[in-house]
Amino acid sequence: LRNKYLGQIEAATDEAALENVRIAALGKKGEISLQMRELGKMSPEERQVAGPALNALKADLNDALAGQKQRLSDTALENRLAGEWADVSLSPRPAHQGTLHPISKVTEEVMAIFAELGFGVAEGPQIENDWYNFDSLNIPPEHPSRQEMDTFYMSLPEGANRPPHVLRTHTSPVQVRHLEAHGAPCRIIAPGRVYRADYDQTHTPMFHQVEGLAIDTDISMANLKWTLEEFCRVFFEIDDIELRFRASHFPFTEPSAEVDIRCSWEGGQLKIGEGDDWLEILGSGMVHPQVLTNAGIDPKVYQGFAFGMGIDRITMLKYGIPDLRAFFDSDLRWLRHYGFSA
Ligand code: PHE
């Protein structure tokens, strides 16, 4: 009996099998339990021999069961550790990493360069009202530039008794908002999204501008010119960068100038600093006295310059990307090619 059960215990390969052996031997109806019950029917002499023998057998089997149980759980643990083994010296598997969109990268660069020149950063809402997007900037309701801007108007809830809001057509409203809130003197840039219903190789309905505004008591057009040239030198990393200041008109600046940069489009490739083409990158001028007045600044004391530069345009130029529309196609292959690691 002893050998039979000790053998079975040793042969048990998992806890369930072990438990079956225990029940067969020591369970309520187990073979040994039944024999214990037989002790009552024996003569005292017989019982004196069989009793201690059975008790010893029972104790031995219990020991053997406990021992085997421990061995089984040790092996289970060893197997688990072996299965979960990790080689920490292996090189990591390549994971797909996101990249910075060229526009984000360039916006950061622009902010950093102007920070060196002493310009802080301001922001304004993308959904603007008529006053900030137009009137405060000296663009009255019947002014032709309201039509020229291809404005997106927000639809009004039924019965609304107010002029509709617009998606801002430029970052210039931030000029007035910032001066109202912080007064003069000031030196800020305001990067952000702007919207116009327009679509071709160099125009998308949503694009990015960075507004610049410098207001103080002794600012002239010469400061504007130096600031823009200095910015372009650093940004494009070209020492003798060629800018073309073209006389222009904006209702909110007087005088006004548009600025182009020399480039070539040869063979579908856009290259900066060479060739006979010019790409317009910004509008600028001396802030109109009426705009200062609208922002609560006294134009007899203060004057200054402003500019609005196309971030997408300067990104195309810097990285030789000929079609603006690719910026917003969300083509992962394009984004991986032109993207920057964070
Ligand atoms: N807001 C003008 C535009 O979007 C650019 C501009 C800004 C011109 C500031 C002059 C001064 O075209």
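^ phenylalanine complex. Residues 170, 172, 250, 253, 283-285, 306-308 surround phenylalanine (CB under 6 Å). The mean pLDDT is 91.
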